[in-house]
Structures
1.
Amino acid sequence: MPHSELPASLYTAEQTRALDQAAINSGVPGFKLMQRAGHAAFDRLRHCWPDLRRITVLCGGGNNGGDGFVVAVLAQRLGLQVQLLCVGDEHFVEGLTGEALQAWNGLREESIPYQIFAGQPFTGELIVDALLGTGITGSVREPFLTAILQVNRSGLPVVALDIPSGLCSDTGAVLGVAIRADMTVTFIGVKRGLLTHQGPEHVGELFFDSLRVGDDVYESVEVAGFITGADDVSHLLPPRDRATHKGSCGHVLVVGGDFGMGGAAIMAAQAAGRCGAGLVTVATRAEHLSALLTRYPEAMAVGVRSGTELEPYIEKADVLVVGPGLGKNAWGEQLLMKALSSGKPLVLDADALNLINHRGGFGQLKGSNWVITPHPGEAARLLECSVADVQADRFSSVVALQSAFDGVALLKGPGTLSFDGDAIHLNPTGNPGMASGGMGDMLSGVIGALMAQGLSSGDATRLGAWLHGAAADRNAELNGARGMQATDLLAQLRLLVNGM
């Protein structure tokens, strides 16, 4: 999902309403905010579709509909042909209150005709979705259900005001049915559900407008999380000193690669090297050493048969990446238990998480310097719930994962989330081309390399997710998303960690 430059802060629906009220309390009338929202959306719409001549505006009876009324007025004043469809019953107008009623009165002064939606064809070249805002609870009901389905079947471009109707602004879940927009213009605060779960599939290109709300308003309301961005790279990975040497850039030990899965450990190691780790060692099955050194000769490669044989290599490492291709047999379990008891910073992924789950969860195994990186299926097993439960509220799920072991939890998927016990961070990068084997192994190596270079586990996790997704985005721009392989990211990762 492409998006314009977004502010760093994320908000829930309740927090956004608090921002609205704080802005009003600061002296900006609510109707003035509504007018600014309508202007912001219409200006963006005209910029993207400059030759537009006919427009259909679908409005509900709340403040989201009021924003739509403002857009309809602006469109007619500019000479566009406006089809205004109000979704509700014959008492639609009588139900309008507050700012929405003020916007309606302004619309009637312009003598803009309207109809109650009854399935009539859309006459516009573009549809403005002003049906349902952030206040929706429960599944979408009629007549909104029929209207949304007709919009999605129309094939016309759609601009959603604030949020696509039917999308939960807190979780990104589709509430039965939701508008699939080509563009969404969101106001005052970026709603966290726009960027995760099913949000990216429905939002289209995302734009933000603060409606000229003052900094004092934002300072008065707590945030729900933060978006990781490109600026974090330069902040967290400044240029290296001239005296830097390999020993000062950290030593990553990758533990994994059982029979038939040696490539996973190799890819994690390559990612760690390309992201700046000074030294990389791979502890794997002896049978994989030739392939490993052929593919990645810069790595130190050791064959280990047991946890005892792993001990001296653990002692030399700064960070352990455990799990890529580890397997679920006795060999992998021995290596994992030795790593868990080491006291070293750990990145736990893939089979490391599966083995922990087989042992009954984390139990007493906890470490504040650990990072776990499950996908929704692994998260569901760790939390002893269904994948649907995990996805229904990804924000609550990542908090529950972190509380289970006292480290940093990263929950993969569109809008990957990480939580370090203090703040939730959302990663906006990535694309469907990443749906291929080995991507998770690469991410583990990236995070391990950043930790080895001195970043905190929380910063390494959130920045690692951003770098991983941004590398995939660049590769997709160059070569397309379909057919992308995990190792295709290596060249872009190196450029990104150097701010290029």
2.
Amino acid sequence: MIERAHLRFWLIGAAAAIVFLVLLGGVIMPFVAGMAVAYLLDPLVDQLARRRVPRTIGALVVLFAFTVMAIGLLLLLVPLLQSQIVEFGRRLPGYIERGRQAIGPLWDYFVHNLSDEDLKRLPELAGSHAGQVLQLVLGFVVGLVSGGIAVANVLSLLLITPLVAFYLLRDWPKLVATVDAWLPRDHAGTIREQLRLIDQSLAGFVRGQSLVCLVLGIFYAIGLVMTGLDFGLIIGLFSGVISFIPFIGALFGGVLAIGLALAQFGFGAKLAAVVLVYIVGQVLEGNVLTPKLVGDRIGLHPVWVIFALLAGGALFGFVGVLLAVPAAAVIGVVTRFALLRYLESPVYRGRNGADASGNRDGS
């Protein structure tokens, strides 16, 4: 009966949290962003505290340095992005024409193998499918924006997020102690262990994957610039940033770079060089960066991360994207704990207590 009461309590809490996110998802975005910033910066404040720097001063110093770096990065990137977008728009007609010439033989071969009826239906089919794809993309983008940034506007995000991050950084040990005091005494040890595993998994993924993205962004940017690709710097950095989503960064960035290279260079050595940059980048990520910086013990499979990000964005907008990886870490740890309990229970082992290999206990 007590176990059922505990289960009912946690299920009610999870349901209340989901309802809270649905109703106030946009409003709480600055608070979620503040918690994310505080979680990332807390180890630095802890280091200052160990050197006898008061947490209030340490939180101010670390948060100020982080804010200055973020603003400096924005001031550096925004004008660069603006000029690159304007330049891309100016060159776009030329790219389209060179791309048409490059794929002209393939298009002629495709058209010559179609019947007259298929040729007549081709524009209609292309228009309908393009409209459906565009509608899906626009719907996702509108939902993402309206679920986050539109409600909690940029001004509130910039004002509230630093305040939330500062107070959390200042009071982090008190908050941890308070939550620890709320834990049910009979299960406090088990819950602490699972929270430690969640923190280990989440910190290992976020901090490790951030370093992977930084290294990949620099590698892709340098490699694409060396090939002579227009806008190679921007495309390379963008490929590195979105590599936070496993496989998607290389896929999306590679398609963008290769398409632009095809329009700029046509088929040839330059196009092969761009393809080689992304192949080497993937080999570097899979065999060096991810094993060294992220490791294989964090318990977050790439497919699970991709699903979590897409599901979080679709359900709760931008707030869902921010909460996706923490939620994935929590669900992963809880699932492994539940599976371990199941494998140790009579439900799995049976009345005679057979182990996982089919042998009976004591045999």
3.
Amino acid sequence: MLTSRLATRMSLAVALIAFSSIAKAADEQTPLPAKARPTLPADPPFFSVNDNRLTYSYQFTATDPGAYSTQPNGTINGKTAKQVYSFTHFDIWAYGTNFFNIDTLKSGHNDPASPCQPTGTLPFGVTGACAGVTEFYGLERSTFGWNEIFNTNAFKMGPLRNVSFEVGFDLGTANSYFAPTTNNVVGGLQFAFDLPYKGYFNVAPLVVKGIASHKSFLQCGLFNPGVPGATCLADGNREFPPTWRIETNYYLDLGFLPESVRYFAISGRVSATGPKRDINTLPALSGAGRLSTASKIELNSEPIRLTFDAGKAFIGPKYSHFVDLWVAYRYWQNKYGLDSNATPGTCTVAATGVSTNSCTEKSASAGVSVKF
């Protein structure tokens, strides 16, 4: 009897040990609960900043070189209003930045589209009521930071944040009687500086090369019988050797304002381009009263823009700069490199030498930008 009980107890002990071993093995094979699993760090995003915007703006007194009309009192009006529709992209990635902007500009009747001549008349002198010019202009700039390329902070000292290589291009065309085109490539350096209140100031010394620039008034057979290479160009395309350009831009939040009205920022840009020395010099067009192709230093600027952060003001800080309202002033001297005080037939009336007031632009503008 005793032996039977002992055997039973030993059998139970063996069974418990076996069950415990099986349970332990099962526990080791069962995955941990989700909360207990170790989490791997997520890959960083390719772009640390990716900003896209649509903008509508209105330029009140813009110009287009050579587009003007004579008023009943004899004065010359070289101004035109322009509506501007813009798409802007800006991003920051591991080695630099990319900026791209494309504008579609629609002029008023004082800047007429082809076939109207710049003075608002159809060929053969008949007055026409032509629609305004439609212009497309694109600009791209990319930077490659030296601190990032060489994995160093050697190019960060004081307010200087970085030194970068910069490359880009400019493309433009319009359906005016002059049928202008612009095709430039640029390259050089950018020096980036920090300003207070999350601001910045960038200055970029660049070399710009004009690949092709078309002007219909230089094309053979359009304005005169033409002697190719002397009075006209076969296709109207000019070529320019490289010249210099300096581009600057800045941005500054008005952080010194009281918190209750801290919705404003200022920004601006200035670029100066050296004279375009025409490779396709036309000797028969030089001299007084002729269609000069001389070029001057071009100053293209929007020295100040005042921006109101409507997203932050009316929706909340989470939506800061999702909707911006802004006003600005624009000054553009010797537009497209044309001499504002000369260039007969464009900047001045060829017969009288009186300015057409169309080669220097002084205009206020206003717009709204929406981030998406």
